[in-house]
Each structure stands twice: as structure tokens, then as C-alpha cells.
Automatic annotation (TrEMBL):
It is found in: Cell membrane. Residues 17-435 form the Major facilitator superfamily (MFS) profile domain. The chain crosses the membrane at residues 56-79, 91-112, 118-145, 157-182, 194-213, 250-269, 289-307, 319-339, 345-370, 382-405, 411-430. This is MFS transporter. Pfam families: MFS_1. It comes from the Bacteria. The keyword Zinc-finger does not apply.
Length: 452
């Protein structure tokens, strides 16, 4: 892994690029959401036994957040190799890291197993860290695979395909949990059924590897190699020359992350908590609310595709700025929607996931466009994953704490979302439009000492 990829004179076909970027992120997000769903439904009792259900849930969410601490580490590690040896090999490695960790979670004894009371949750945390490590390198590589192969004026459109991996992975993960729940008793599900989605990941990883191993290197990285602009230390270069863009990208993603993990992890907790509990929820059956989430995620996928053409027509900043204003307003009407019965809860999920698609869709184009070609993998990955700490790792924990502190009211949770969206609006206002810039040829001028 020390020699940069050489050009072959051939090119990836659009079908190959779209399939490879889509299937890889679908698998990665499937793995991630399988854990997120289990963190709410089964892990609190199996790995963190305690008398207080809220304490169990918070402990489970704390380990859930370990992956978001790992993701910036993964962005540094995989970003280094992505900018040093190429996108293809790095994408294969990130997929293997994520997939192996997910399968091993499905093999773990629980804390209820004699002798594993401490070791089981510790190993769960380690494997969760490995999941985050893999995902930290996955997203940026898939985004570059799509956008660095895109025709002029189509980057945001092609960039929506790896973004589709998020809703597809979510639907696959939750349909799997629903199918298992319908095919066995609650006791069997708690005893061993929860392992099936984790073990099934092995099949998906094999398919993903088969597709990605057939890829050629992207034109943008090939240009970097031909011009001898590959830097020895991408991390040092991006922090020295592009630190402003790192900060901008981190906060541009903030509202997206907060919105998504409120719409998935927190709403699943709130929606399935009993109405007569000390901290009351909506009282839906688990499978019923998972179906409601799946309907909402369909809108997520549809509006992800809609977002690409809008970002090309109006520009990234204007389009995302308008959506962020919509997220602020959504946060302010959060409580009335939750309080309006089934119709209100369903409307909340549909509106929230539609906004999610509109804000998430252009990110695969916008974040990489902030950085030059020779540090693009590292820069976009770090911005994306630093934002995950602020916007995703903290969100389930903070939202649950705010909900508990308010005695079952979600008004503070809505204000939390609105505040995150305001920070994103400020970041967008301070960032230049990137729609019309050159992409394949825009490597930064490299100091001679940095060239290999």
C-alpha cells in the first residue's frame, strides 16, 4: 500500500460507478443501523443490565457514541491512504473493516452470560469502535468515487447515489429486524434472534467487495499522480492549508447529523416508550413504529435524489441554506406534531425525513468540493466525521437527557435541533459557492518537499 495507483487509459462506466458507490454505502449504513436499532431494542438489557431502564438506555447510547469518536480516526487513517495510493484500495479496506466488526458483534456473548459481565460490554465497545473506524473512511471514498467520475455539471446529481446508501441501508436493517420479530417469539429474539442481522452482513460484504474490486481509479486522483502532486502527509497538509474549510465543512454537516439521529434513534425510543412510564412516550409497538420509520425513510430516499438537481440549478449554498431554515422551523413545530396522534407522528416522520434527504443529498458533492484533489479524501472525510461527534454521537444522549429532564416533553429536543440548524446556516453564509469550480484539475500547488 505504498505505491500510488497508475493510470490504465481506461475509464469506469457510469453504471459501474453508480453501482459501486451505492452498494458499498448501502452495506456500510446497513451495518451501522443494525447496531443503532439493536442499541434501542435489545442491547440495554443484554449488555447493560441495571434496575433503571433509563440508565440502561443511556449506557447503550454511550457505547453507540463510541463509533462517532472512532470515525474521525478512520477518516485520518483511510484518508491518508485514499490520498496516497488511491480511492479504490481504500474503499475495499474500509468495507472489510466495517463488515468484519459487524459480524463479530453477532457472535458476542452478552453480559447475562456468567463470567462475561464486564468483558462483553467492553468487547462490544471495541467492535463498535471498529465499525466507526470503517465508516470513517467509507463515506468520503464513495463520494469521491461518484463525483470524481461525474461529467461536468453533474457532480451533485452523481453524488446523490452514494447518499442513497443511507436510506437503503436503514430500510434493509429495519425490515430485517421486523421479519425476525414476526418469525419468532420475543424470548427467542432476545436470546438469539437479534444476532441474525449482524451475521447476515457477511453476505452483503462479499457482494460489495466483488463490485468494488472491479473498479478503476478515478480521473481526479490519476491526474494528481501524473502531476506528482501526491503529498506525503495529507493530514498535515490539510490542517495547514485548508483548516478553514475543515471548520466550515464540520458545521455545514451539523444540522444534517442532528436531524437524522433525532429522526431515527431518538424517535424510536420516544415512539416505543409506554405512555404511562415515568418518562412517557407514545406507546407504539416496536414493529408498528419501525414500519412508520420505514415509510418516512422512503421520503428520505426520494428527496435525496431530488436534492441533486436542485443543488446543480441553484447552487449548493442557496439550496442548503433554504433547507436549513426549514429545519429550524421544523424544530419549532416538533411538539405539536408529536402531540397530534398517529397522523401527527406520521407527518413528523415524513417532513423530517424529507428535509433529511434535501440536506443530505448534496453533501457528497459539496464537502469534497471544499478541498483540492490531492487532499480531498482526507479533508472531506475529516469534516464529515468531526461533525459526526458534534451532531451524531451526542444527539441520542443529549436528546434523551433533555426529554427526561423535561418530564416527557420533547420541546427542548426541538429547540436543540433548531439551534444546530442555525449554526449550519452561519457556516453556509461564511462559505463560498463551489458548484462551478474545476474539479479534476484543481489540485493545490504542492511544495517540492511534500512530493514523494
Amino acid at each position: 500500500m505504498s505505491t500510488p495507483t497508475k493510470t490504465t487509459g481506461k475509464a469506469n462506466t457510469p453504471r459501474r460507478v453508480i453501482l459501486a458507490s451505492l452498494i458499498g454505502t448501502s452495506i456500510e449504513f446497513y451495518d451501522f443501523y443494525v447496531y443503532a436499532t439493536a442499541a434501542v431494542l435489545v442491547f440495554p438489557a443484554l449488555f447493560f443490565p441495571a434496575d433503571d431502564p433509563t440508565a440502561q438506555l443511556l449506557s447503550s447510547f454511550a457505547v453507540f457514541g463510541v463509533a462517532f469518536v472512532a470515525r474521525p480516526v478512520g477518516s485520518i487513517v483511510f484518508g491518508h491512504f485514499g490520498d496516497r495510493i488511491g480511492r479504490k484500495a481504500t474503499l475495499v479496506a474500509s468495507l472489510l473493516t466495517m463488515g468484519v466488526a459487524t459480524v463479530l458483534i453477532g457472535c458476542l456473548p452478552t453480559a447475562l452470560t456468567p463470567g462475561w459481565e464486564i468483558l462483553a460490554p467492553a468487547l462490544l465497545a471495541v467492535l463498535r469502535f471498529c465499525q466507526g473506524l470503517g465508516l470513517g473512511g467509507e463515506w468520503s471514498g464513495a463520494a469521491l468515487l461518484a463525483t470524481e467520475n461525474a461529467p461536468p455539471g453533474k457532480r451533485a446529481i452523481w453524488g446523490t447515489f452514494p447518499q442513497l446508501g443511507a436510506p437503503i441501508g436503514f430500510i434493509l436493517a429495519n425490515v430485517t429486524f421486523i421479519a425476525i420479530a414476526f418469525s419468532m417469539s420475543e424470548e427467542a429474539f432476545q436470546a438469539w434472534g437479534w444476532r441474525i442481522p449482524f451475521l447476515a452482513s457477511a453476505i452483503l460484504v462479499v457482494v460489495g467487495l466483488w463490485v468494488r474490486l472491479s473498479l478503476l481509479e478515478t480521473p481526479a486522483f490519476t491526474k494528481v499522480v501524473e502531476r506528482k502532486e501526491v503529498v506525503k502527509l495529507p493530514l498535515a497538509s490539510v490542517f495547514r492549508r485548508n483548516w478553514v474549510q475543515l471548520i466550515q465543512g464540520t458545521f455545514i454537516m451539523l444540522a444534517t447529523y442532528v436531524l437524522f439521529y433525532l429522526m431515527t434513534t431518538f424517535t424510536l425510543t420516544y415512539g416505543t416508550r409506554a405512555v404511562d412510564a415515568e418518562v412517557a412516550g407514545l406507546g407504539y409497538e416496536r414493529t408498528d413504529f419501525l414500519w412508520m420509520l420505514i415509510v418516512g425513510v422512503v421520503f428520505f430516499g426520494v428527496f435525496t435524489l431530488v436534492a441533486g438537481p436542485l443543488a446543480e440549478r441553484y447552487g449548493r449554498r442557496k439550496m442548503l441554506g433554504a433547507v436549513s431554515v426549514g429545519i429550524v422551523l421544523f424544530g419549532l413545530v416538533w411538539v405539536p406534531l408529536f402531540s397530534a396522534g398517529f397522523a401527527g407522528a406520521m407527518a413528523l416522520l415524513i417532513i423530517g425525513f424529507s428535509l433529511m434527504g434535501l440536506t443530505f443529498g448534496p453533501m457528497a458533492a459539496f464537502l469534497p468540493e471544499l478541498f483540492p484533489g490531492n487532499v480531498r479524501y482526507t479533508g472531506s472525510a475529516i469534516a464529515y466525521n468531526f461533525s459526526s461527534i458534534l451532531g451524531a454521537a451526542l444527539t441520542p444522549f443529549v436528546a434523551t437527557a433533555l426529554w427526561t429532564a423535561a418530564g416527557g416533553s420533547t420541546v427542548l429536543v426541538g429547540l436543540y435541533l433548531a439551534g444546530a440548524a442555525i449554526l449550519t446556516i452561519i457556516a453556509l453564509w461564511l462559505t463560498k459557492e463551489t458548484r462551478d469550480q474545476e474539479y479534476v484539475e484543481n489540485s493545490s500547488v504542492v511544495v517540492a518537499a511534500e512530493a514523494p
